[in-house]
């Protein structure tokens, strides 16, 4: 028995030391309680998800939702013949999202493992439609350098040239002028982001669509759009209803969103929708004979639990438009309050203030401060907070920022505790410990 062993309590059914397996399947079985304790103890080393202000992913759901998910974990969503009601809940969710996003008729869509899979499916559809128009050569996809990495992954996997356009010159994301200038006969589409992961801002979807209309009208290529609404798809319809970004724009052919972000469901679930059947090439939809029935399917996986779909439908039923509006507004209000408080510290310059996504990004105000956003991020971890620090994308890569994502369950009280700890960190970094909130004099005997 080596050092990678623990003493197991006799009440767990074993008496003695149990080796912790690391690289080889153990020879013998152990008691279920002991196995659970081994795994549980190691997982204690993870960060606390509720204090993870880096992630957009939902970290809290109601007990009723968790119970419902536990009931559905064993159902393979793809087996629609065996679990027809789970499939019906998926269909209802697609219909609700199509209505929410202004589809002109019955939208076509599917749930996915996450929003990134939906991006892959949307990209494949754009590529196939481009080929169907008789195009040849190597296709390209136009997008800002601030896109999520899944789009670069799509381009690499399906041999599409990624035209990643620089940001900067007064903006942190893609502009209509830059998008149109990059389009040519090889362009399969333009990706616009409704809620950048870098700073939470919306790209001008309607402006990009109008510029592409003008490009077509003057004899240029007719380039479709996809909207990556991973986060904004569950924020803008409720908080910014007058913002036109979705299927109300004829040029928008497909939209993806993450149900496990502001859709308020545990990971992982995403949604991919197309404005109509014409936008999704029929050859990409498979009719598969599977476990006794015929099943149309469009996805990259044949095995997914139905739990997240059931939880998404539960959340739609539970909250409705009123509830989503209230949750989103609360998140935005907390983000705006945080922005004001952080701005008042005086040590930071705000890049975004939670005015679109409930997200704020900020940098160190003084270039010669002697400390960086990475120092702040590291010291906040000592208080339990996970606040990421990173450089902005190409065009602003010399600008390094901290980002805070306000999610459902992150209250004003918790935000106040974060501000207190941030003030304390800044005070210590600047050598002004005496003014740190809650500063104490050490005990001297």
UniProtKB/TrEMBL annotation:
Q: Which residues carry this modification: N6-(pyridoxal phosphate)lysine?
A: 261
User: What InterPro entries does the annotation carry?
Assistant: Glutamate_decarboxylase, PyrdxlP-dep_de-COase, PyrdxlP-dep_Trfase, PyrdxlP-dep_Trfase_major
Q: Which cofactor does it need?
A: pyridoxal 5'-phosphate
> What is one GO cellular-component annotation here?
cytosol
Q: Name one GO biological process term.
A: L-glutamate catabolic process
GO MF terms listed in the record are: aromatic-L-amino-acid decarboxylase activity; glutamate decarboxylase activity; pyridoxal phosphate binding
* Annotated EC: 4.1.1.15
Q: Which reaction does it catalyse?
A: L-glutamate + H(+) = 4-aminobutanoate + CO2
Alphabetical keyword list: Decarboxylase, Lyase, Pyridoxal phosphate
Tell me the superkingdom of the source: Bacteria
By its UniProt entry, which SUPFAM superfamilies does this protein fall under?
PLP-dependent transferases
Pfam families referenced in this protein's UniProt entry, alphabetically? Pyridoxal_deC (PF00282)
What is stated as this protein's family in its record?
Belongs to the group II decarboxylase family.
Instruction: Provide the protein name.
Output: Glutamate decarboxylase
Q: Which organism is it from?
A: Baekduia soli
- Lineage, highest ranks first: Bacteria, Bacillati, Actinomycetota, Thermoleophilia, Solirubrobacterales
């Amino acid at each position: 028995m080596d050092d990678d062993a623990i003493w197991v309590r006799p009440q767990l059914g074993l008496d003695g030391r149990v080796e912790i397996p690391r690289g080889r399947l153990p020879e013998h079985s152990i008691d279920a309680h002991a196995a659970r304790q081994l795994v549980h103890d190691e997982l204690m080393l993870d960060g606390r998800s509720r204090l993870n202000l880096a992630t957009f992913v939902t970290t809290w759901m109601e007990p009723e939702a968790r119970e419902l998910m536990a009931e559905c974990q064993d159902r393979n969503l793809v087996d629609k013949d065996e679990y027809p009601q789970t499939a019906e809940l998926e269909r209802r969710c697609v219909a609700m999202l199509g209505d929410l996003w202004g589809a002109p008729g019955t939208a076509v869509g599917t749930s996915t493992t996450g929003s990134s899979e939906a991006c892959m499916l949307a990209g494949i559809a754009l590529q196939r439609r481009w080929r169907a128009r008789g195009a040849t050569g190597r296709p390209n996809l136009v997008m800002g350098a601030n896109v999520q990495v899944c789009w670069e992954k799509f381009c690499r996997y399906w041999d599409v040239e990624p035209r990643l356009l620089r940001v900067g010159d007064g903006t942190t994301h893609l502009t209509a002028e830059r998008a149109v200038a990059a389009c040519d006969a090889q362009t399969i589409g333009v990706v616009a982001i409704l809620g950048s992961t870098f700073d939470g801002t919306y790209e001008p979807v309607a402006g990009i669509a109008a510029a592409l209309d003008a490009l077509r009208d003057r004899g240029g290529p007719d380039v479709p759009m996809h909207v990556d609404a991973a986060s904004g798809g569950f924020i803008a319809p409720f908080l910014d209803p007058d913002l036109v970004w979705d299927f109300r724009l004829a040029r928008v052919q497909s939209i993806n969103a993450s149900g496990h972000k502001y859709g308020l469901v545990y990971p992982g679930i995403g949604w991919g929708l197309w404005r109509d059947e014409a936008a999704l090439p029929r050859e990409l939809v498979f009719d598969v004979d599977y476990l006794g029935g015929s099943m149309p399917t469009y996805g990259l996986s044949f095995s997914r639990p139905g739990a997240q779909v059931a939880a998404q439908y539960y959340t739609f039923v539970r909250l409705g438009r009123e509830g989503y509006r209230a949750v989103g507004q609360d998140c935005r209000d907390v983000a705006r309050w945080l922005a004001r408080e952080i701005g008042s510290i005086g040590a930071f310059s705000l890049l975004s203030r939670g005015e679109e996504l409930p997200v704020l990004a900020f940098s160190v105000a003084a270039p010669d401060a002697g400390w960086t956003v990475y120092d702040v991020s590291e010291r906040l971890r000592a208080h339990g907070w996970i606040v990421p620090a990173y450089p902005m994308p190409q065009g602003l890569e010399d600008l390094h920022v901290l980002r805070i994502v306000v999610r459902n369950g992150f209250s004003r009280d918790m935000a106040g505790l974060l501000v207190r700890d941030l003030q304390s960190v800044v005070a210590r970094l600047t050598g002004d410990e005496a003014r740190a909130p809650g500063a104490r004099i050490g005990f001297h005997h």
